[in-house]
Design goal:
single chain; 359 residues; mainly alpha; 17 helices; acyltransferase; hydrolase; hydrolase activity
Length: 359
């Protein structure tokens, strides 16, 4: 476990949480409306962080064992699916009552949505009613599954090409491909493709794998590095990019605009050697990081159910109180899920599906 990166997972999951507080767009408070429009709406960038981090962490945990054939592709797939699919299935079932009471409910569409969600293929379908159906954050888990399927092949390819050695010939075309596509593809398809579609978001994941190669290169060289300066610089860089985000088109901000500051942040904190890393390595923050997957998967459901309950029974009008309740309930449910569902089910599935090594 890289403790600071574990803790940072919660920070970016929280950014996605506030991004989904869309009811604030109609707030009576001009201050809250401004905060929502200028800050909270940009919280979707947490998804980019998770995609890049996923590539980095998988390379960190599995690169050598994959290259040395100490773990089979099938065991790798089982381990990853056992991590994400049970919670996805649980949240999918919890979302069913919301979908049925929808005023625009169509049975044929509902079965299509159910099929694509249950198979975690919804992000491949460029239709909003499909990829954002049921528990909408799970579209990114659909992407993650696709990344997992490709990871063994990507790590082998990158290793064989010695990607850092030939970076000028390979990285530049790679980095230029998305901006070129953004110029030629009509804007109406921007969100379907550049934000949701796994064939485009795989670029974020590959950036994370390449970042790990850079991490290894730096780690294996003897250099005196002031990690305190680097850690504060990485935070400052992300803040600067965030402050000036409105100067860039939204389609650019879906991914490539934040590649640099997020990659720098992940790379620096992977070394765990600065004062901020020590702060992020406290038990409370690590625990928040460990429940971040559950928090990400549950928060939208908590939001929808609470707003329904509040409209019919509670009638709470204080928006700060509403946000606090949704946050606290999401945190509690995420903790319970980690202890009583995610960890036990994960261990059980790996125990029965992954063969024990022969003596």
């Amino acid at each position: 476990m890289i403790k600071p990166l574990t803790s940072l997972r919660f920070l970016f999951a929280f950014m996605i949480f506030v991004h989904h507080m869309t009811f604030l767009a109609k707030s009576k408070s001009s201050t809250l409306r401004w905060i929502h429009e200028s800050i909270l709406k940009e919280g979707y960038i947490g998804v980019s962080f998770f995609f890049i981090l996923s590539g980095f962490i998988l390379a960190y945990n599995y690169r050598d064992s994959m290259l040395n054939q100490k773990i089979s592709k099938s065991n790798f797939y089982i381990a990853r699916i056992a991590r994400i699919y049970p919670l996805h299935l649980l949240t999918l079932l919890i979302a069913v009552p919301i979908t049925i009471q929808n005023v625009n409910f169509e049975l044929s569409l509902w079965f299509k949505q159910l099929f694509f969600n249950s198979t975690l293929t919804q992000s491949f379908v460029p239709i909003k009613k499909i990829y954002f159906s049921f528990n909408s954050p799970s579209w990114s888990i659909s992407n993650e599954l696709f990344f997992y399927l490709l990871f063994p092949f990507l790590i082998l390819l990158i290793s064989k090409l010695k990607i850092l050695k030939y970076s000028k010939g390979l990285l530049i075309p790679f980095l230029l491909l998305l901006p070129i596509l953004m110029l030629v593809i009509p804007p109406i398809y921007y969100k379907n493709l550049f934000y949701v579609n796994p064939f485009f978001r795989i670029f974020d994941f590959v950036v994370g794998i390449l970042l790990f190669e850079l991490y290894l290169k730096i780690k294996n060289t003897e250099k005196v590095i002031n990690y305190n300066v680097l850690e504060f610089s990485s935070i400052l860089l992300l803040v600067v990019f965030f402050i000036f985000h409105s100067q860039l088109p939204l389609v650019v901000r879906y991914s490539i605009y934040y590649w640099l500051p997020m990659s720098f942040l992940i790379l620096v904190f992977a070394f765990q050697k600065g004062v901020v890393s020590r702060l992020l390595s406290t038990n409370t923050l690590i625990l928040l990081g460990e429940i971040s997957f559950g928090f990400y998967m549950f928060h939208q459901l908590v939001l929808k159910y609470f707003l329904m309950l509040n409209k019919s029974l509670l009638h709470i009008t204080n928006e700060y109180l509403i946000i606090s309740i949704i946050l606290i309930v999401s945190l509690i449910i995420s903790y319970i899920s980690l202890i009583w569902f995610e960890n036990p089910v994960n261990r059980y599935l790996k125990r029965i599906l992954i063969p024990k090594p022969k003596n």
